[in-house]
Amino acid sequence: MEVDREDGRSQNQLRPLACSRNILHRAHGSASWSQGDTKVLAAVYGPKAGTKKNENPEKACIEVIWKPKTGQIGKPEKEYEMILKRTLESVCILTVNPNTTTSIIVQVVNDDGALLPSAINAACMALVDAGIPMKHLAVAVCCCVAKSGYVILDPTKLEEQQKMKAFAYLVFPNSVHSVLPEGSLRVEGEPIENGIITSVTHGIMSVDDYFYCLERGRAASVKLSDFLRRNLQQQSTDSSKAG
Amino acid sequence: MGLPNASGDLSTEVEVDAFRRLFPLRFYEKHLLESIRPDARPLGRARETTIALGAVASANGSALAKIGSTTMLAAIKMEVMTPSLETPDEGCIAIDFHMPPICSPIVRPGRPAEAAPVVAKQLSDTILSSGMINLKELSLVSGKAAWMAYLDIYCLDADGALFDTALLSAVAAFSHLEIPVVSLNDDGKIVLSEEQGLSDREPVNKEKRKINLSSVPFSLTCVLHKNYILADPTAEEESIMDTIVTVVLDSSSQLVSLQKPGGTVLAYTSAIQDCIALTRQRVKELQKILEEAISGMEVD
């Protein structure tokens, strides 16, 4: 089924990705992530001493502050903060630095669709830049379901709000390159990177559409994992040359 | 005091309540091995659910929903307003969710609960995107007057599964809603017929007193822990096992929303399918409970 998208992309094509780390010098870690015109800046401060009042002092605590591009902070920002906090809590190793707080500040520079996935990707890169211990990276994609049932990846804002009947933000662990033999890292017969860390859907879709989105999302997360790997390896060789 | 060894021998030395507080995860795992939970529920069963319609007499529509101990009171007030220029023949719904300090020891006055704006936004997204209410039904005079429905949901007791109970109370309140009769007065404004006291004035909307609800959404929250899926968690279960999945299905089995905000356990396809199957069962149960509540009201 050929689909006409405004910017001429195919169904499964992601927008051009760009990522740079260590752009803010006061923050302990920072990253900027852009997917097409959507651009998000993330900064990490931490670990700092002490946890908030109701949090478990035997684990590290993560605090997320979401700053929209314009306007006051309202319920959508609080929801994004909660989703980001829980996603990053499941990705970071919380037992390494107990009774500490790591703050992640996300600033939206431009919103052109797939905002939450871009923010999750930016936050992960910023955590890597800050050296916070993590189990794996969280790779986030956005899948949209159209009225006729086909699924497109990485929609622009116009596509998300007007043309599509539903969308899903999916976050998977990054793909694993392992020296162990192929079958040993599987859980329930599926590789680890097929597990969903976070899923947020909006709009009505059928259950089969959702599972189709999951398949497409997994394929896209492999591509994104490769991009992240290349980006991180390249930047670490650059900084070793400088030092 | 030595550290307890892996086989949990301490359980013979310590009282059950103390063990439950000190080692909550081990307490739960001992139960899960026998496929049961501390309140004697099997893993896939939700708590007892009741709905009472018409709890607030002064509101146009109201309902009190209880799932186990979690209690939510929803009330709808209708007001006439001018519709916006982009949608001249559509009304509007404003949804707000409050967690007053009465509901939980964690919520203190002056410091709003973290869960409140999140549940409010999720409720609003679910109700508006599910298409349960056709906004065109809320229109009175195209371009001049339409209904604004203010739905307020108060959490009276927060014991887990807040979103499920809130959605159920909102749906019940809308099914109980009775739109007040209005008529046009001399200045061309819409007024409530009872206020005017003029029975000879033609009411504008005499026939349409109840809203038509199509594709009603129902939800189920599940908690994932290792290989177990626990349906309808209590607040204690939600705090020890942090992977929560909320599935909202409507009456035609379409997926309205599937939220899984992070969590230690990764959800594979089989776990998602199990959650959706549990939700389908729950939708049938809730539909029956709602129908019984509505027919109970009509008899009165």
UniProtKB/TrEMBL annotation, chain A:
It is found in: Nucleus, Nucleolus. One of its GO terms (cellular component) is nuclear exosome (RNase complex). CDD domains: RNase_PH_RRP46. Keywords: Exonuclease, Exosome, Hydrolase, Nuclease, Nucleus, RNA-binding, rRNA processing. Residues 13-133 form the Exoribonuclease phosphorolytic domain. One of its GO terms (molecular function) is single-stranded RNA binding. SUPFAM superfamilies: Ribonuclease PH domain 2-like, Ribosomal protein S5 domain 2-like. It comes from the Eukaryota. InterPro entries: ExoRNase_PH_dom1 (IPR001247), ExoRNase_PH_dom2_sf (IPR036345), PNPase/RNase_PH_dom_sf (IPR027408), Ribosomal_Su5_D2-typ_SF (IPR020568), RNase_PH (IPR050080). This is Exosome complex exonuclease RRP46 homolog. GO terms for biological process: nuclear mRNA surveillance; poly(A)-dependent snoRNA 3'-end processing; rRNA catabolic process; rRNA processing; U4 snRNA 3'-end processing. Pfam families: RNase_PH (PF01138).
Automatic annotation (TrEMBL), chain B:
Coiled coil: none annotated. CDD domains: RNase_PH_RRP43 (cd11369). Pfam families: RNase_PH, RNase_PH_C. It comes from the Eukaryota. GO terms for cellular component: cytoplasmic exosome (RNase complex); nuclear exosome (RNase complex); nucleolus. GO terms for biological process: exonucleolytic trimming to generate mature 3'-end of 5.8S rRNA from tricistronic rRNA transcript (SSU-rRNA, 5.8S rRNA, LSU-rRNA); nuclear mRNA surveillance; nuclear polyadenylation-dependent rRNA catabolic process; rRNA catabolic process; TRAMP-dependent tRNA surveillance pathway; U1 snRNA 3'-end processing; U4 snRNA 3'-end processing; U5 snRNA 3'-end processing. Its main location: cytoplasm. Belongs to the RNase PH family. Residues 46-180, 216-278 form the Exoribonuclease phosphorolytic domain. InterPro entries: ExoRNase_PH_dom1, ExoRNase_PH_dom2, ExoRNase_PH_dom2_sf, Exosome_comp_Rrp42_subfam, PNPase/RNase_PH_dom_sf, Ribosomal_Su5_D2-typ_SF, Rrp43. This is Ribosomal RNA-processing protein 43. Signal peptide: none annotated. It is found in: Cytoplasm; Nucleus, Nucleolus. The lineage of its organism: Eukaryota, Viridiplantae, Streptophyta, Embryophyta, Tracheophyta. It comes from Gossypium raimondii. SUPFAM superfamilies: Ribonuclease PH domain 2-like, Ribosomal protein S5 domain 2-like. Keywords: Cytoplasm, Exosome, Nucleus, RNA-binding, rRNA processing. GO terms for molecular function: mRNA 3'-UTR AU-rich region binding.
